[in-house]
Amino acid sequence: MLPLEYDRSQDRDIIVRDRFDTLRREFLRTIVTPEVIEEHRRSPLGQHSERLERLLIYFRQRPLDERYALRTVEPFGKYQVVRLSGHRGTPPRAVDETIYASANEALHGLFLHCIRDLLET
Amino acid sequence: MTPVRLFGYTDKISVRPGEAVQFHVSAEGTDTAEAQLVRLIHGDQNPAGPGFIEEEVACAANGTWQVERQTTQVGSFLEVDDAECRLAFEGSFTLFAFIHPTWPASGKRQNVIGRWDSDRGLGYGIGLDERGCLQFRIGRGNDTVECLAADVPLQVQMWYFVAATFDAGTRRATLYQAGVGNRYNGLLGKVALVDYDSRTSAIFGARPENLAGTPFLMAGSRGRDPQQRECVSELYWGKIDRCGAFDQALQPGELDAIKSGLVPAMDSLVAYWDTSKGYTDRGIGDVVVDVGRHELNARGYNRPVRGQTGWNWDGHTDCFRLAPHEFGGIEFHADALTDCNWRATKVVTLPRGLRSGCYAMRLRSGSARGLGEEHVVFFVRPEKPRAQIAFLFPTLTYLALANERLSFDHPEREAMTGQPAVLSEIDIEMYTRADFGLSTYDMHADGSGVCYSSYHRPIMNMRPRYRMPSLDVASGLAADLSIIAWLEQSDFDYDVLTDEDLHRDGSAALAPYACVISGSRPEYCTERMLDATEDYVADGGRYIYAGGNGFNAAAGIRDSQPWIMECRRRDDGYKPWISRYGEHYMATDGMRGGPWKVLGRPTQKLVGIGLSSQGGGRSEPYRRMPDSYHRTVSWITKGVEGEIVGDFGLANHGAAGLALDYYDRALGTPPHTRIIASSGGHTDSYVVNQQLVLYAYLGLYGSYDWRVHADMTYFTAPNGGAVFACGSVAFAQSLPINNFMNTASRVLANVVEAFVRPGRLPGFAWVNEEKQWA
Fold it and tell me: Which of B74, B292, B380, B574 is 20 to 30 Å apart from B679, CA to CA?
């Protein structure tokens, strides 16, 4: 392994990675449907349809600084969506003020952030 | 106002009543804390269970403690014992070392070797500048530091011979850098068009000035913190192999001779640290030997990693035991931590007659929302074994995972668990601080894996309510307390032991007990622990493996420093990082690191089942299998209505989850083992253990591959012994559901009752095969 943070300006494979990512996102946008979103709302952690699983696999593989997580405001009562920094020592930051009443609701809120990022960028 | 924070650790993890235990506490935002000894009974706050339960215990130490903020020296380095200041050169000198930087362009200065006070600019040293260029520095105070730099930067993970000379007569300084990479020992091969060599020289204004108290260090320099307390700063990232010093400015030809590997033998040699000296077949200590005439040995701080491949390693051997002279690399990390070395805040003599259990000194300060609370956890083993049952806390596994930050740092963690992280305030605080150290699941900032963990530091995830963020379940101690709570609500009397006791005392630790119950994830084991468990069962002991992913990973403990555990990681099995080739053997005891399976000791061979899969999200129930109706074992499921066991739990609503173990005759499951129940229907977040497959291919997931399941098994052993294995990490967390009245609890109770009952095990009388099916 190379250092966690090093100068990647010379890494040529970033272009390859980005091209793959562009094509992958292009396809994934076509499978975002109300049904898929509803399926996730009903069961964020269960067995999923191939479409939903494809989206989730993509979200789980995003670079750390584009990754979301939940912050427990109150155990088993209040959760918030945060974004990881991807830099050791730098805490995650809240993405909005929304407080969710359960982990499952918050997981779905997090999923919607991922969907928004996918569709809007 | 500084928010109130309390952190602490004990000097020992396992103590007996009447013994003294030392508490080391650091406080922020307060100078007092209310201390209360508590016995921990349940941790997980999940509302589906009994919640957090602790019992206050009378103790002379309860009351107000004076506390203070303590400082921690982070980073590994070597300090030379040079009481006579032989290395405080007044005249000419030469310094040399073989080095292998792992983060040259770290943006911070690093000192490789020297007697250098970086705070005051006094002394001399060879180091790296912020961009990763080698530097030779001489100072007579902050305004008179002279510096000579190499003209090509150091390459990451490549070996170099470096040297600096200073001729006091001419005041000429030279800096010498030459690549000594070969086909095996570095990141790049011969084909890479890289300039490794540099020779620069300059005339300096004067010789260095040396303070009497400046230590000669490898991998650091003398610094001072903002309060002007002495510390070690300019910590180095990378390996250092043989190094030394002369009180003469060597000529290029002489340096070339050292570079070629010849051992210097001139009279001007003041010190020569042969980093490969003193290796034994059973491990390497922390003293680096000066083989020169003054014996200026160097001692490691925060356990530099020894036995690493050296500059002259040719790839033919993969272990320091076989060719020590090729494994002289000592690896240093600026974020290493094996001992906070805080002052003892309180020495507490535990009350005599204290019952065996998991305890903590609960420290509180502040009020309401500003309340700071810490549970400094330790375990009390009995003065003399008293109960029939011993619960064995898997403290080595707690240590392996201590203060892990996978959810923040590991790019593959979320893909592996199949769910986003759920972070608590303490996770976030831990991530922002460097002074609590890393786990053996983390990487140092230079990308190298962390192979040492210690309990001489606060461990956030050994707090009793802790939830592992990447799985959002109680984990480690918090999960194991569900077994303790189960024992508490039963009529079973029990003692507790730790991995440390098992390692130290071997099977004698277990022998007094009719029944031993493991933790929910007893993953990390030393060889002695495995031997002791195997001997206990073979000699007639009855063992309940109450979890999954057990007995899986090799770990090392040095007898003299049991608070530090070591693990190395191989290319087979689950791993958050991987040791470099040639660095798979533990410096602690010479054992090969990685999965025990590879060493011929799969978990199945010991307890009948072994790791089949891991994942996160939904857990599943078990379904009874035909064997459970066999008369020899039908007593195990007595009282269970129907087929299903454990369709509930605090860990994702099922008794089979997180890590699953399965029966496999090809891996040594004893031939007469019965499968009592098995799980199934796991989601695709559960993937087949990569140790079980030869190729990676589409379809190794829960809904595709039958191996993704947990088996609950039972077998009888020689001399009246037996092993019951629950099959999954999540099993323990199914016990508390419905006030402990449930099918999983029933099964466990049946087994424990049978195991502690004197005489032969139930079912022994059924010997005629045709009559054995109920």
Answer: B574
Q: Tell whether A2 is covered by a domain.
A: no
Separation CA A24–CA A19 (nearest Å): 9
Asked whether B247 and B91 are in contact (CB, 8 A), the reply is yes
Tokens of B722: 């037996």
| Alpha carbon distance B598, B553 (integer Å) | 10
Contact B655, B728 (CB under 8 A): yes
Cα torsion B577, B580, B585, B587: sign = negative
Q: Give the range of the structural domain holding residue A64, as residue numbers without chain letter.
A: 13-120
Q: Which residue of A has its CA nearest to B577?
A: A1
Question: Is residue B421 within 8 Å of residue B415, measured between CB atoms?
Answer: no
Give the Å distances, CA to CA, from A111 to A37, A59, B65, B420, B615: 9, 8, 47, 9, 19
Q: Which of B433, B448, B616 is the closest to A1 by Cβ?
A: B448
- Top pLDDT among B577 and B142 is at B577
Model pTM score: 0.97
Across the interface, whether the CB atoms of B418 and A56 are under 8 A apart is answered yes
Across residues B240-254, what is the average pLDDT?
97
> Could you tell me whether strands B494-498 and B269-274 are parallel, antiparallel, or unpaired per DSSP bridges?
unpaired
What is the tens place of the pLDDT at every residue in B751-772? Answer: 999 999 999 999 887 666 655 6
**Cα–Cα–Cα angle for B478, B480, B482, rounded to 5 degrees:** 85
CA distance A66 to chain B (A): 11
Domains of chain B from N-terminus onward: 5-42+51-72+340-380 (2.60.40.10), 77-332 (2.60.120.200), 389-756 (3.40.50.880)
The total of structural domains in chain A comes to 1
> In the 3-class helix/strand/coil scheme, how is B456-518 assigned residue by residue?
CCCCHHHCCCCEECCCCEECCHHHHHHHHHHHHHCCCCEEEEEHHHHHHHHHHHCCCCCEEEC
Q: Is the pLDDT of residue A50 over 60?
A: yes
Residue of B nearest to A68 (CA): B420
Average pLDDT over residues B32-42: 98
Residue B52's nearest CA partner among B37, B38, B41 is: B41
Pick from A6, A47, A84: which is nearest to B408 by CB?
Answer: A84
Q: Say if A84 falls within a structural domain.
A: yes
pLDDT at B266: 85
- Confidence check: pLDDT of B419 > 90: yes
Q: Which chain B residues are Cβ-neighbours of A44 within 8 angstroms?
A: 419
B156 vs A contacts (CB less than 8 Å): 2-3, 6
In a domain, A31, yes or no: yes
Does the ipTM surpass 0.85?
A: yes
Contact status, residue B332 vs residue B237, Cβ threshold 8 Å = yes
Residues of B in contact with A88 (CB under 8 A): 405, 408-409, 431, 445
| Burial of residue B730 (number of CB atoms within 10 Å: 0-12, 13-18, 19+) | buried
Query: With an 8 Å Cβ cutoff, is A74 touching chain B?
Result: no
In a domain, A60, yes or no: yes
Other beta carbons within 10 angstroms of residue A46's beta carbon come to: 13
